[in-house]
Design goal:
The complex is a heterodimer of chains A (114) and B (109). In chain A, 0% of the residues lie in helices and 50% in strands. With 114 residues, chain A is an all-beta fold. In chain A, the strands form two sheets. In chain A, strands 2, 4, 5, 6, 9, 10 and 11 form a seven-stranded mixed β-sheet that branches. Chain A starts with a strand and ends with a strand. Chain B is 0% helix and 46% strand. Chain B contains no helices and nine strands. Chain B is globular and about 40 Å long. The N and C termini of chain B lie far apart (38 Å). Classes of the chains: A mainly beta (114), B mainly beta (109). At the A-B interface, strand 4, strand 5, strand 9 and strand 10 of A face strand 4 of B.
Amino acid sequence: SAVISQKPSRDICQRGTSLTIQCQVDSQVTMMFWYRQQPGQSLTLIATANQGSEATYESGFVIDKFPISRPNLTFSTLTVSNMSPEDSSIYLCSVGDRGTTEAFFGQGTRLTVV
Amino acid sequence: DAKTTQPPSMDCAEGRAANLPCNHSTISGNEYVYWYRQIHSQGPQYIIHGLKNNETNEMASLIITEDRKSSTLILPHATLRDTAVYYCIVRGNTDKLIFGTGTRLQVFP
């Protein structure tokens, strides 16, 4: 199984600022995903992080608000830009290999925007 | 990806079997049924998955109906540590996991 390290684990940020979340995996993986979990809600997929190309965003999410990088097969970042209190959520990184059985999740980044 | 329907909450006595149902009536032939759970303040944890046959591992059993329109996750001897939100997900070729609202399972002493 893959070991995922997310940083920071939590942060409190001022509105209007940006935060970059890092996801590091201990092995090469083909698939990396970013999710958001708002308080008391289920997980919502933000985007698929593609290595060497632009991320693929789900409906309702745009690159200007959530820019994503994936420079190699073990690392990705998600930036939450121009934050507002509505962005207060847990952001989770998930990884897996195409066609294999399971995806693994990091422990998440708990973001509070004040 | 097909959508799933689960009851919002269930209770189970410790030591008893917990049977969590899931409806996925629009599932297509190449889509798998996956189950994950999320214990409070943690990332989701994989439990089990299947295509058409029943599956069993050290955590749970998965029973899929013959028409594949529904399934049941069985925790044979629930413990307090099994208290969590359980998600039934239908996963297709895109490899994406699209989460529904899940079932909040409360195991009581």
